[in-house]
């Protein structure tokens, strides 16, 4: 059973991004919120769904210091190859 949380507490998150839903296991759903940028994310994030928003650019460091992050869904946004030119991601083994 997955429990939803859209407040700033619980499920191992130090906060949940505004309007997003946070679930146990480090899952964050920020889809279909008309976001124009990647919100600040908690360090405990494992998977984030940012699909179907209006994101056009990924800022440097958007996914920095997220040691457990394994999945980011950016489908259905207004991104192109140039959007990722300066993006820096940290991969953990």
Automatic annotation (TrEMBL):
SUPFAM superfamilies: L domain-like. It comes from the Eukaryota. Gene3D superfamilies: Ribonuclease Inhibitor. Keywords: Leucine-rich repeat, Repeat, Signal. InterPro entries: Leu-rich_rpt (IPR001611), LRR_dom_sf (IPR032675), LRR_TM_domain-containing (IPR050541). Pfam families: LRR_8. This is LRRNT domain-containing protein.
